[in-house]
Amino acid sequence: MTKINRRSLLKSTASVGGMALAGSVLGTPLIAQSRSLKVGSYGGYFEDSFKSFVYPAFTEATGITVESVTQPNSTDWLVTMQQATRAGNVPADISLYSRDSLIKASRIGGLLAPLDASQMKATENLDGYFRFEDSSGLIGVGAMSWFTSMVVNTDYVDTPPESWADFWNSEQYEASLGISKLYNSHFLDIVAATFFDGQETFATNDGIVALVEKARELKPNTALWWSAESQMEQSIKNGDVIGGMYYHDVSQLMAAEGFPILSHFPKEGNPQDYGSWCLSAISDKAAEAQEFINFSSDPATQALMSRQIGTAPLVDRSKTDLTEEEFAAVSGTPSIQPAYEAYLDNETFIKETWDTMLGTS
Amino acid sequence: MSAIEDTSALPAEAPTRRLPSPRMLILWALIVTFCVVPFGLVLAISFGQKIEGAAWEWAFTGENYLRFFVGADWPESRTTLYLNRLWYSIYYAVIAALIAVLTAFPFAYLLTRLSRRAQSRWLVFLLATMSLSEVFIVMGWDILLSNRSGLPMVLRETGVTAWLKDVGWFAQLREWGLANPRDVKFKTSMVATVLTMSYLVWPYAVILLYPALSRLDQSTVEAARTMGAGPWTVMRTVVLPTVRLPLVGTVFLLFVFLLGTYVSVTVFADPSQQTLAISVYEAVRGSTLNAPFGAAQAVILLITGALCLWLGRTLVARTGTPA
Asked: What are the DSSP E strand ranges found in A248-351?
């Protein structure tokens, strides 16, 4: 039984190697004997980076090949997976969900399979916040995170504000800021952290109204309420706006290209969002999935993602080999944790109160 | 054999009259598949029920329609948000359609006075510009109105901005939201929104007006001129009455086309002046996954559009009869 047939060994390694190439580059179907896993991630630059850097490293380490599956985003993907689960055939074993989609999936029920933490020792590197458990057990493990930060155009603003509150000063910022138009893009979390009691303020309708009214005071200073990333990118590059909120990672890339943009952590901090790996309830690849999540939680993999994809690591910098400079490029402190539960429990009220504030004069 | 031939020959006429021809059947199948079924689905979804914190489920509730008029929190509070958006949908569509037709009309009229060769060149050019998508056109105007690359830059570099500041008109522009403390700005503004929307449909206006204007009998114009009418009088009493119907028809068509404009409005309109099209998209594709409310808004937009057309037609018919 222990005798290894050289030919079969060669054959299997060759097929694994070939499969890795085919799986990562072309996404072709895999042969049943080899160990494989279908992993979803947000399409575009993000997924491409995963296919080029993360999946090949995983295959090399474990021999499990990865077939990359394109997710448009979290919310749409949740609907797709919900329908696919009902139909009994899911397009991905592991999906990448934002925390609010993860909670939504947990509430809908029957979509995610609990994971066995004892098989994923490396997940202990992650803060408990990033290991999401519901009544069925551990159903989501953090993959990577990103910040929405305060940005300024350094051609117009010499020193970035100490506090988000400075943006409310019309003397300096009249009709000059770019803020996200979407109710759940965490601007309300910034308002809560700056002027109120943080997440607690979201607990009541009165609290939400107070947050939105505070945001209303920023209307004269906001030249652009952006809904697409590209709008804000163009506007801050062009000086149509001289500051506002934008993604930390993209700002850093723009700054690296020579644009006068500074991504800054004021004293209240910036909202931190993160994605989680979740196993489909009807996947039969639990063992492979756990190996993948274990690999992803390894500080070396977290550092690899930070360098190649620009995401913030979910483990302490001291555990990784990231230099201070590399770390600053993708992360910062303090971090504002969004009131995810409130955004779900009270989504219609928050959205309509916010939209009414913006949509009526 | 002959008996069979006889029987098949005789009733041959009758079934063809009773059964629709295959061509008609295909046509009806297409209409049902691509118009009736999707619309029926939208209508059915609009009565669905939103589940807070999750997605939605099939149901039969009028809540989504009620929410449109008073908001979800009614009777605790009331919002006119969606009525406001409906108003802007109609407002933009009417203004932009009128601007497009008013400016395209003189152009199309002069175009018909050109040589055949020049006319066909212009028409081919206009048809070609129609292939530009809305996204493309908005991107272009976005650059033309940007602070560093567009009109604000031109005004700054030519000293107009400084002059506006000197004479004090700049403060007025700031009041209107058309300037920040440093420069004039057009993003976001109603000017930019309406401008882009009328630009979007302008080629359509010319192409739609061209046939009527080119069929215009020039001898009537010449007759009026020889009887001493000035060019403006000729335009008012001869040309305009002749092409009144195509003119009104073009406005209606562009109005309907513009009701659903999405990209121009998201990019150039302030959230307080955005339209129902944006609201529908946010409900259906946004993170709330509230397709039923999106569908209800779409149905209301459709009904309002139809009402506007009916109203417009009635008004035209009424003013038309005495003339």
From this structure: 261-264, 270-279, 335-336
